[in-house]
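Need residues for this backbone.
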């Protein structure tokens, strides 16, 4: 009976006073995830719309840098087995492999590993720091305490990084200086009885042609010509046709496949402004170009 009392008393008080001893005696193991030395599989993928630089991490997930046209770069560490709650993480750069005894370790930043496919997300500044450290031979480490209480380190090795990084930088130089939003819808306006494209119009059409060539998700380009009500119906239909076909012909000359073009004209139908003022009629003399995605 006395022994049971002592045991019960130890169980009650042990959590408060003895947990340090227990944790010392039965310390949870430190878990590390990294590619085997010499078997790093850094990979670059690129297009005029996006550049990516990734490294698979066996039994864990994947880390990747990426940058989209007109957007800042970022880094994502994705864990295949997603966490269920946010966990604090410390991102550090360890000394180059050829300086194993160098005491200098740099803190790149503090972050969280969060539920969802993005895991750890680093914005521009921290992503660029990480790229620079890796290019200089530093190992990038992500340290956190797992939901099960294990100390975890996920490592990105600089081995085989340099050649792929050079390709990534070249890809960045080829990103389009504009995005889908800049070409999704375009409206050209015309003077009275005018059907000619201006230099500014042609510049925008070149951007449209470039974007269509780069984005396989563009299903077709819709081109619709319009007129004001100043002429007869037949004349208005004809001039709206000339305007739409001038756009079509220039896009084809730029290399846009004819099959991707849907061209029509509506004359004075569907005005966007009243036709009883000069400003209203000028707004209605137009061609509207839309890029339609699949």
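Answer:
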């Amino acid at each position: 009976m006395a022994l049971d009392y002592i045991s019960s008393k130890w169980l009650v008080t042990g959590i408060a006073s003895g947990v340090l001893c227990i944790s010392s005696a039965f310390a949870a193991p430190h878990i590390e995830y990294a590619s085997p030395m010499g078997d790093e599989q850094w990979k670059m993928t690129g297009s005029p719309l996006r550049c990516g630089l990734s490294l698979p991490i066996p039994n864990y997930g994947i880390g990747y840098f990426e940058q989209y046209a007109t957007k800042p770069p970022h880094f994502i560490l994705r864990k295949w087995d997603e966490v269920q709650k946010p966990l604090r993480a410390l991102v550090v750069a360890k000394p180059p492999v050829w300086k194993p005894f160098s005491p200098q370790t740099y803190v790149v930043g503090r972050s969280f590993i969060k539920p969802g496919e993005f895991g750890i997300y680093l914005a521009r500044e921290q992503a660029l720091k990480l790229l620079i450290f890796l290019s200089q031979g530093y190992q990038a480490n992500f340290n956190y305490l797992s939901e099960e209480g294990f100390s975890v380190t996920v490592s990105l090795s600089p081995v085989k990084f340099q050649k792929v990084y050079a390709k990534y930088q070249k890809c960045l130089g080829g990103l389009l200086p504009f995005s889908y939003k800049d070409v999704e819808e375009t409206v050209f306006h015309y003077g009275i009885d005018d059907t000619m494209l201006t230099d500014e119009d042609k510049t925008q059409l070149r951007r449209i042609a470039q974007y269509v060539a780069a984005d396989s998700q563009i299903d077709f380009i819709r081109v619709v010509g319009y007129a004001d009500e100043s002429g007869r119906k037949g004349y208005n239909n004809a001039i709206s046709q000339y305007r739409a076909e001038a756009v079509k012909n220039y896009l084809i000359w730029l290399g846009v496949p004819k099959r991707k073009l849907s061209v029509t004209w509506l004359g004075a139908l569907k005005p966007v402004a009243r036709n009883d003022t000069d400003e209203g009629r000028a707004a209605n003399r137009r061609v509207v170009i839309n890029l339609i995605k699949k």
